[in-house]
Known about the structure:
The chain has strands at about 10-20, 25-30, 35, 40-45, 50-55, 60-70, 80, 85-90. With about 110 residues, the chain is mainly beta. This is Oxygen tolerance.
Amino acid sequence: METERMYSGQVVPFTLKAYFRSGKRVTLKSAPRLSGEDFLLQSLDEEPRQQQERLNGTVYTSLTWQGTLSAVKEGEVPLTVEMDAEVLVRSRGRLRGNPFGSSLLDDPFFLIS
Length: 113
């Protein structure tokens, strides 16, 4: 968001980006949604803009939505966004000493900014 301070009822434009590591097969299971009752989503693009971006030397596929939201009440409240996605990860085989194979925790694929 371009503004850090909002007032109750004020409509503010925002940009939402989801990053997925390039080369992964991603299926969106839901549109982004606000968590909680402190903000109202006024509008959101139905389809995200998709492009390749490099962050810290790693190539990601980014999905970008534009929208507007408004605050329901004044005060400091967190803005939390959720989205369901399914990511197909190819198995690289088992790591030595790890009976479960490679760790998905070593492969961050989702960031929101």
